[in-house]
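Hi R.,

Here's the chain you asked about this morning:
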Amino acid sequence: MKKRILSNSHPLLPLLLEEKSLSFSYRYLVGIDEAGRGALAGRLAVAGVVLPSEKINLIKGGIFLEGKFLPLRDSKKLSSSQRKKWFGWIKKEGIIYSTSFVSPKKIDKLNVAKACNLAAYRLLEKLLRKIKTKKKTDKILVIADGGIHFELNDLERKNSLTLLTFPKADEKVPAVALASIVAKVLRDKEMERLHLVYPEYQFCTHKGYGTKKHFQVLKKIGPSQVHRQSFLRKFFGSFKVA
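And the predicted structure, written out as tokens:
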């Protein structure tokens, strides 16, 4: 079976995202999203989160944590503090999650879209190994954010899977929103570690994205080993790695 790509206006979408329908039809909802797709430097992070269907409605929209409301939405619309609180909640609640990273060299070799899709497929393989279904017939719904596209292939034959993708899933599906948070938090941590190795690039501030200051440093000293050469060629032509 091939993945179904849904638009935001597709009539099937409200039914799929309705908690009672999911509980009846699927045992687990797996959300997949990425962080760092458009960055000039650093690895691409693809994360996945597994939610039992009965938990979906409990966190939809947000939760109260430490006496304050913590909204749940796309990670880009949350503050760093809010993302970290959600990540802490995921770990505390024992929510199954995993992350797959893609190196700059792999991105340069495959292109970022193919690299992202390959990482998503491998990520799903890891998540399925972590899911301990009570019955072989337990069905799993996998929803990926719109920029991620891959086929289930043999994964579908070994598991009861349905795979869907649609634009802005991270704003509509709790599991995808959580996946976007996991990807963002873990990638940000990595970029902060890279700042210690390459302090001149200030990765701790822009996380590898193409800010004005980042471009200024690149023009002055050139790229590092963790920059994506295929991205930089679009702006500067050929570059020698520092």
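The chain has one domain: 4-196.

Let me know if you need anything else.
M.
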